């Protein structure tokens, strides 16, 4: 790889950051947007990345990752104009780099990790040191996550805190019992290393194919 080629990715990131800065300063629509205004777009773009990963092409994934990166750049451009606590994309990148180096002592330090489980031990230890102010294992979990993903995340944290929550697999007769049954299914997914949210999405994708096939035959 030539010296020019090696520099290209960093130059491309700097170029798009400069483009975002210009858009924020000169586009009358972008000038009015707040962090809160961007939330629906961030959610939408995140789901479009997921769709590209699960059923799209390589070009789709490249494009959707770019759209998601634009959201990060947009939030950073807004933050850079905050009169009291400004930060920009360079501050975001520096913080991220420091965190990733800190959480990979087996890559950047003297620690040893020969298996994925050993890597996870280092990761969790570094993360715990960073989050000393948290008072509960559940602190830091976004409550806006989709319900199945939230349940899976909370079950993992609960297990780490010594709380065994498996739910009941009984056939539900009420909405409360339905919640218990769903929790039991999510617990099964977690125990087997499955992603409950993805499993349901993939089944829904298959259902979509079944419905469209039935409509085509009618």
Question: Would you kindly provide a written description of the structure presented here, covering whatever features stand out?
Answer:
The chain is mostly helical. The chain folds into three domains: 8-87, Orthogonal Bundle (Helix Hairpins), CATH 1.10.287; 88-132, no CATH class; 140-217, Helix Hairpins (Orthogonal Bundle), CATH 1.10.287. It has ten helices and no strands. α1 (3-26) crosses α4, α3 runs antiparallel to α4 and α8 crosses α9 (175-191). It is globular, with a radius of gyration of 22 Å. The model has no long low-confidence stretch (mean pLDDT 87). Keywords: Hydrolase. This is Nucleoside triphosphate pyrophosphohydrolase. It is an enzyme of class 3 (hydrolase).
Briefly summarize what is shown.
The chain has 218 residues and is an all-alpha fold.
Q: What does the main sheet amount to?
A: none
How large a portion of the residues is in β-strands, by DSSP E? under 5%
Question: N- to C-terminal separation?
Answer: 57 Å
Mean pLDDT: 87
CATH H-level superfamily of the largest domain: MazG-like
Overall number of structural domains: 3
Q: What is the CATH third-level topology name of the largest domain?
A: Helix Hairpins
The residue ranges in which pLDDT falls below 50 over 5 or more consecutive positions are none
Q: Order of SSEs, N→C?
A: HHHHHHHHHH
**So, CATH architecture of the largest domain?**
Orthogonal Bundle
Number of helices: 10
**Global geometry:** globular
Number of strands: 0
In the CATH scheme, the class of the largest domain would be: Mainly Alpha
Task: Give the class from helix and strand content and strand pairing.
Answer: mainly alpha
The portion of residues assigned to helices is over 70%
**Gyration radius, to the nearest Å?**
22 Å
Organism: Microbacterium hydrocarbonoxydans
Domain NTP pyrophosphohydrolase MazG-like: 34-108
Keywords: Hydrolase
GO molecular function, one term: ATP diphosphatase activity
